[in-house]
TrEMBL record:
PROSITE patterns: GUANYLATE_KINASE_1, GUANYLATE_KINASE_2. It comes from Natronobacillus azotifigens. It is an enzyme of class 2 (transferase). This is Guanylate kinase. Its EC number is 2.7.4.8. ATP binds at residues 13-20.
Length: 205
């Protein structure tokens, strides 16, 4: 019996590229993937549940976890910490489940440093012009903010070399199919399965 460990898949890319949309569409088609639950120091909101929406911790506990390298990545946003707990990810992978993390580029680079065995997928816009159109169509950004986001996107696209795969998000369905193909191919990689098959040979001898 081949017992395969799960794989951590990290989907990342510039703001406005459609990471959330692709992740949502992917999860509607692929129920085997498990979404990574983040940890936060912000207060639990009405209707939220511990271990479902977030893992809720005090600022002191969170900072101790940073110190002990118990987070694959973390950031501060509006006075609260957010991060990905290492233990949760590792325990889920040990059960044979794939973990899927959708995150900003800087967070993905932190994860790569702390968990290099993950699979890193860069979601790219078809062009910077198209990315600008998507950001503008949200209707929430001023002209200055749009230009700042585009400059940040250019800088992030230059970090593409840190990733294992690049998926262009020209059409959501097509992008989802490519991510699914990456998941399948990663499970067939010799490096991942060779040790398991060698065990099979030992049993048969």
């Amino acid at each position: 019996m081949i017992e395969e460990k799960g794989i951590l898949f990290v989907l990342s890319g510039p703001s406005g590229v459609g990471k959330g949309t692709v992740r949502k569409a992917l999860f509607e088609k692929d129920t085997a993937l498990q979404y990574s639950i983040s940890m936060t120091t912000r207060a639990m909101r009405e209707g939220e549940e511990e271990g479902v929406d977030y893992f809720y911790r005090s600022k002191e506990d969170f900072e101790k976890m940073i110190e002990d390298n118990q987070l694959l990545e973390h950031a501060q946003y509006v006075g609260n910490y957010y991060g990905t707990p290492r233990t949760y990810v590792e325990e889920t992978l040990d059960k044979g489940n794939d973990v899927f993390l959708e995150i900003e580029v800087q967070g993905a680079l932190q994860v790569k440093k702390n968990f290099p065995e993950g699979v890193f997928i860069f979601l790219s816009p078809p062009s910077l012009e198209e990315l600008k159109n998507r950001i503008v169509s949200r209707g929430t950004e001023t002209e200055t903010l749009v230009m700042n986001r585009l400059k940040a996107a250019k800088d992030e696209i230059e970090l593409m070399d840190n990733y294992d795969y690049v998926v262009v998000n020209d059409q959501v369905d097509r992008a989802v199919e490519k991510v699914q193909a990456i998941v399948k191919s990663e499970h067939c990689k010799k490096e991942r399965v060779a040790s398991q098959y060698k065990k099979l040979l030992e049993v048969s001898n």
